[in-house]
Amino acid sequence: GEDVEQSLFLSVREGDSSVINCTYTDSSSTYLYWYKQEPGAGLQLLTYIFSNMDMKQDQRLTVLLNKKDKHLSLRIADTQTGDSAIYFCAESIRQGGSGGGADGLTFGKGTHLIIQP
Amino acid sequence: EAQVTQNPRYLITVTGKKLTVTCSQNMNHEYMSWYRQDPGLGLRQIYYSMNVEATDKGDVPEGYKVSRKEKRNFPLILESPSPNQTSLYFCASSRPGQGNEQFFGPGTRLTVL
Description:
By secondary structure, chain A is mainly β. Chain A has strands at 4-5, 9-13, 18-24, 31-37, 43-50, 55-58, 61-66, 71-76, 85-95, 102-107, 111-116. In chain A, the strands form two sheets. In chain A, strands 2, 4, 5, 9, 10 and 11 form a six-stranded mixed β-sheet that branches. A five-stranded antiparallel β-sheet of chain A has the order 1-3-8-7-6, with no helix packed on it. Chain A starts with a strand and ends with a strand. The relative contact order of chain A is 0.33. By secondary structure, chain B is an all-beta fold. Chain B has strands at 4-7, 10-13, 19-25, 31-38, 42-51, 54-57, 65-66, 76-78, 87-94, 103-104, 108-112. In chain B, the strands form two sheets. In chain B, strands 2, 4, 5, 6, 9, 10 and 11 form a seven-stranded mixed β-sheet that branches. The radius of gyration of chain B is 13 Å and the shape is globular. Chain B starts with a strand and ends with a strand. In chain B, 40% of the residues are buried. Classes of the chains: A mainly beta, B mainly beta. Chains A and B meet through β5, β9 and β10 of A and β4, β5 and β9 of B.
């Protein structure tokens, strides 16, 4: 079945760049996502990348996709204390049959980003 | 405001006492799903629904039921809750098709004693 792997913890100093890595197994995934969960809160979609792209940049966020190696990364430039959260990588999984359907999500276990002052 | 709502937000109950967690969305989305989040395991899908009267099992459906009688509502039913169902539950909805953002509810923290 589908599997998404990411390391559980990452510690960085404030002002440095954070790079969170993820590997996935389903080569048919059309979209790959990064979600952010702050303590006690729900999930917030941070960014996503279409599988035929290599890179996507959105302000401080850069997503890199290596489709051959099934490797996805999220780089946060100039990491701030407000970036402290759990970051989930997720791949889309087709649900509902070939006649239509929708994208469900298979999530990684989440990476706790810890910011040191 | 476009949103997914869940009720209750917090619930403590005892083993075997049937409960329902409601989920409602106001975006006219066809697709809805339930996930549970456990420490060190991430989020896992319980059930999903493509539309009214169309539901299907996700990765961890055992011990749960769902129904989809109306487009906006997708309740999660635990007929006989057990302590291993203590978890944080999220409902989500989206339009059908590929690449459509899933909107998540705020979560329901359930403790089964």
